[in-house]
């Protein structure tokens, strides 16, 4: 089990790139990070987010979170933008030549390119502070160009998060576990299940689960709900 810090770029008044139809980079990457967190935790990893809402955190705050928590890996989620609105493609950045960093970068690059159907704009060196000031392997992803109207219309932020999670799990020799859809089997002994809450925020659900456990409810667990 590894400790991952996932960093959704921008936030608050700093929206990052904005597409011609109004989609904001800060919203897309937050949704992607929440999806990646869900899959990593489902597969036994420990995850901390630099932000969980539309708030701004400066770069020092982001790498301090990772360093103080002694994370094993740091992954920063971004989109891209240029004045030339015909350009598309994925760029991934790292700082230095540390072996684990290069390995993580390649795993994420392969997953994002193969499943988001994006052009490969390469793995590049950059001295972004969230890369050079972190004390663990760190990667910054720019998934595609919001300045391209077709990208803005079709870009799937949840798929972005899912594919990055797959790349991260490959780094720790795990294959992402899917939740199979199965038909319920008839029960030989009738039983009843009680649901105690619906939470939009995963951390709220986790806190409610811990409280239930403390109150003696041992057979309690979290299940994803789309709706």
How would you sum up this structure, described in words?
By secondary structure, the protein is an alpha/beta fold. It has a single domain (3-171), classed as Aminopeptidase, CATH 3.40.630. Helix content is 37%, strand content 16%. It is built from seven helices and six strands, in the order E-H-E-H-E-E-H-E-H-E-H-H-H. It has helices spanning 25-42, 59-69, 99-116, 129-132, 149-154, 157-171, 202-214, and strands at 3-8, 46-49, 73-80, 90-94, 120-125, 138-145. It has a six-stranded mixed β-sheet, sandwiched between helices. Helix 1 (25-42) links the parallel strand 1 and strand 2 (46-49). Helix 1 (25-42) crosses helix 6 (157-171). It is globular. The relative contact order is 0.18.
What profile does the largest beta sheet have?
6 strands, mixed
> Span between N and C termini?
30 Å
- Listing every helix as H and every strand as E from the N terminus to the C terminus, the arrangement reads EHEHEEHEHEHHH
- According to CATH, what is the topology? Aminopeptidase
Rg from alpha-carbon coordinates: 19 Å
* Strand order in the sheet with the most strands: 2-1-3-6-4-5
Percent of sequence in beta strands: 15-25%
The parts where pLDDT drops under 50 for at least 5 residues are none
